[in-house]
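Question (not urgent): is this output format expected?
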Amino acid sequence: MIPYGKQNITEEDIKVVTDVLRSDYLTQGPNIQQFETAFAEYVGAKYAVAVANGTAALHLCALALGVNPGDKVITTPLTFAASANCIRYCGGEVVFADIDPSSYLINIHAVRTLLENAPRGTYKGIIPVDFAGNAVNLEAFKLLADEYGLWIIEDACHAPGGFFTDSAGNKQFCGNSNFADLAIFSFHPVKHIACGEGGMITTNDLALYQKLLSLRTHGIVKSTDLYVNSIELAGGLEQYPGWYMEMQTLGYNYRLTDFQAALGVSQLKRANAGLEKRRAIAATYQAAFSDKAFVHGQSGVVSGHAYHLYIIEVEDRLGLYNHLRGKDIFAQIHYFPCHLMPYYQSLGWKVGDMPNAEAYYQGCISLPMYPTLTEEEQSFVIDAVNEYYKHG
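Got this back:
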């Protein structure tokens, strides 16, 4: 069986997890901070906050930025639903902006049109998504956001190690928060770094970082500098007693466990090697399909692309999908446009609202893409695709 994505668990990964299972801490132990520090360094951000999953990361970002009922936030329809749902969790209103069909990323011109056609202050923020691993040009979005007083959450779940090149010619890595207020990542098994479940938030803003730490753990703080209640009320004399803590806001239990964090640290050590392999696989797909008449769109080879997915757009997508499954090749479809999910249709979105995303969905298929995919397996996939369109 050849799946579209797959985790790579080594003996070293297993060892670090079993070491934690034999230790005194299964959660809230030293591996959490070790993972956060290593990940922040990897993406080039000042701060990182490990959380239970990517959805929790998005929710906490929306809370930290103060999304309130009725607040309008712009995002792409070509994403997993969590990118939009985090705004709904806070009672906000999601407004979709169509994609650029050449990059599959949210179209900045569509976003500008929304902003120009509404009274200033209508929108609060933007959530661009580094779809499939292709990095959004956040420098351009930051200029637009500043013009209209908006914040930015970068959904980089597909793109650890990805980057875009800024106007000065510098590589800007996904999640470094030089242009976004917050960025989020996922450690689901098919992602670059696998923890089973898990997520990370990165930022360069100290105030947001401190707020996230509290929101992650029930709204509780454990710092004498932040306490509101008096020492006497806490049960101390000249200083706060060691057991004391305060719940200062309504937070959540969105913590990551220590054994997941240990696995994340181990996986992170191989992140660059995995990224190189993904890019090599993408180059092979590009060479195989770039001149094929049945392919009318594909991920291509893009500088800075992290290649969580490699996508081609084809005629008779359903026929190809079933043909591949018949050969135990489990390609996948990413994604059904979010605005056409029944929930979002119930809020007023309809067919025709996002024509580029809808046209993309008619032919998209994600081919197997993961670092342990062998040359023989990839050749088998390529041959199977070509075979279908030769005889299909």
